[in-house]
Records
---
Amino acid sequence: MEIIVNGQEETVAPCTIAHLVASKGLAPGALVVECNRQIIKQEQWQAIELKAGDRLELLSFVGGG
Amino acid sequence: MKNDVLQLGGVTFTNRLFTGTGKFAANALIPQMLAASGSQMITVALRRIDATAQSENILAFIPKNVTLLPNTSGARTAEQAVRIARIAREAGCGDFIKIEVITDMKYLMPDNWETLKATEILAKEGFIVLPYVLPDLPLAKRLESAGAAAVMPLGAPIGSNRGLETRPLLELLIENCRVPVVVDAGIGRPSQAAAAMEMGADAVLVNTAIATAKDPVAMGRAFDQAVKAGRAAYLAELADQSDLARASSPLTGFLDE
């Protein structure tokens, strides 16, 4: 199915947010996930199954002034 | 001086140097700089992850006793700034937010109009809002009415290290605002930070000048000393200046008169 991750279309097998994060090799500690403009707390990543057309933002804090 | 503290959104700051996490050669310098400068508030930004780069968690380099000030950099509209602020709070960064909305990519001037709109929304949602703006007194009064916890006017363009180019306008804000005035952006030297504090600024925010100094830790310490000196001078009330010389001793009673 197609989902949009950080503005880019991606084809993924049905999975949870936790699975997607792991499959990308991202360290969960620093990651902030927004799905369809809703912030998804890390405790919920296991429980939420991605659906076709979901718009995900994978964000992290960086240096800034 | 002992009880000279800055209150923002119910948090008490005994140090008036706010710092930033941008542009450090290594993140490990950040906690060292914080220790050397005594800074109790530091900015961070939020960005999409770069899956191709191994990135460190910048929050891991900030001690827990330092207040996080996430900024909304990257926002070009009030709506985007509001969205970033909500994400930062959800992500556990607390209630402080520096609103930074930039539509002018040539000079990186803050968009005061969008910033005001974002302030109105976020203050209602309980954020402690610190808007980064061009120094404009009527706008600053509107920000106050909208619930801003402070106003953060620029001294010079971001990262320019040119100092207090907006000085006369900053003076108007300092004299007339009820909320604290934090001079943000453009301060390139400790002497410029001291000058801002002498004028009566409540705090300064310095990133580039510290982070890109050859020794950022020592420069953090230098800025702390400058901010303290400037604040002490403001509280001591500066002596008058005059166009003509005024002798320090009586001009009478000389030898051989």
Note: Residues 181 and 202 of chain B are 5 Å apart (CA to CA).
---
Amino acid sequence: MAEREEWEPKILAFCCNWCSYAGADAAGLERRQVPPTIRVIRVMCSGRIDPAFVLMGLLEGADAVLVTGCHIGDCHYVDANYKTRNRYEFLNEFVDELGLEPERLWLRWISASEGSLFAEMVREVTEKIKRIGPSPLRSEWKK
Amino acid sequence: MEEVKAKMNSKYYLAWAKDEGIRKKGANGGFVTATLVSALENDFIDVALVVRKKSVYEGIPVLTSDAEVVKECAGSLHGAPINLTKYVVEHAAKKRIGLPTKPCDARGIIEQAKRRQVSLENVFMIGLNCGATLHPLRMREIASYYALDPDSVVREEIKEGKIFLVSEEEGEEKEKWMKIDELEAKGYGRRDACKSCITKIPTMADLACGIWGSNDEKKTFVEVCSEKGGAIFENAVDSGYVEIEEAPEKGIETRQKKEAGMQKRAASWKEKMDEVSGLSRSERFEFYVDALKNCIHCGACKAVCPVCACEEDAKCLEMNDERDSYAISMYNVLRIFHLMDSCIHCGQCEDVCPVDIPLTLIQRRFSERMQHRLRYTPGMDVMEKPPLYETELRWSAKAE
């Protein structure tokens, strides 16, 4: 197998069904360039994202995990993204204390019409992760 | 009777058991035992949960409605660092329980009450001031260090910053003591969690009792901390089990000073024992992975944890699969994560860990920074919900 020229990070993104997943869709419709580093998991609401999912993603070897949802106040389920924000604060402290770079965890609010923002976010994350390198949690045989 | 009622308007008292036997057996006048006995006899509680001394290294929790058994269990026991929370949770649904609690017992019970595992109406917590407990194995080491035979130690006592051990060999009693500070400088001494604990007076319990602030070794300084506590205290006095006098003004001050001094020492210990704080980010990561890779997933830390209320179908057990071969297992990651807002730093997890993972330090590192940011102290007030349950975090709900 030919050796890859550049290391490509693997980024896990949780997108809520009503806003950010549609936002990702819009990015495609608008023919925006989205780096192929991203793996999207659709959930019905960002409030469904258990911190355990994020932690498991990191343990599985994801170089970064994106948590995305509707803007505060726009949640399809009234206030569930407040809970997302709450959990993100905990996750952030956890990741920082564990000794992972804080850049490995992201929380962004993206609405259904913000395709450009979605593409831009993925580019930004990919660039940052390329700079800091692969996650130390990635096991030897998954590299 | 009127006279007694008139006396009951203050918050602080000196109290002791009227019964000669209890007074003699109890550590500081037998107030706690006498109060429990009177609460049992006057139907405030159905059962008392006490720790029966088997040896200086071993105590067995006993649930009893027999006042004689309660009297038998009087006296302090530093070498059996058990947390009674889970026993209370198991039985308080059906029975009203009265028990003596260290600060970490009381905090654990309050955390369980927040999680609806126990109703505080059914639990009467008689708080005991707590300087420290000792791990039984460490206590044996101290005995050897004192040149005593660990198996023949019959009594222990922590008084005025000294650890006393009394052994009985061939009918001859030998007493040895040393200052805790000196012992700890040599690596012997209290549990890590106790060394760095700053909750010394259990004001979150119903009554807070202890020797600090008392002017007599056989009188207990009592603070009434809740209505419920006031009720059993009044009952104990009314029914003639306990005698009281007004606490001396100076005593209240001494007690506060004593606590402040211990807190200061705890803070310096915390700094000294924190081997992670000087490390860089990647070294810290290495340290945690290295420490937790020994885990054999026996589940003992979860079973004993006074805060955890998830029982068998807990997320940390369900989502854990040892075949995953993660750098840190899901079990450990989730347990640490879930305790970030509610760990009370009791150190039970480290005590039971069969592979000696420094869990006290790890849990403290993770939870303390979050609790500090949230200005939230778990186990103090049953009305304060754990922040992880909240819809919105209130970063600045309380002033600095």
Note: The first strand of chain B starts at residue 12 and ends at 17.
